[in-house]
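Fold Annotation — chain and its backbone
Encoding — discrete vocabulary of local shapes
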Amino acid sequence: MKILLALTFVFGVLHLLTMTKLFDTSLEGILLAVIPHKKTSGWYGVLTLLSVWFFYFSLVFQTWYWLFGGKV
């Protein structure tokens, strides 16, 4: 569980930071970093959608963990 928290925390923070003007490039998505595809392929859209869902899941998971201490 702590590995998932670390992964989502690091990815979530990096994703938000790369959206600012501090960085020249932006982090597209965690799945696109692992499985790169051309922007013209059909899989690019699917991987982008799954990456966005993972990003939102990471924000919800972090909120739940910090509010409730990881307890159900």
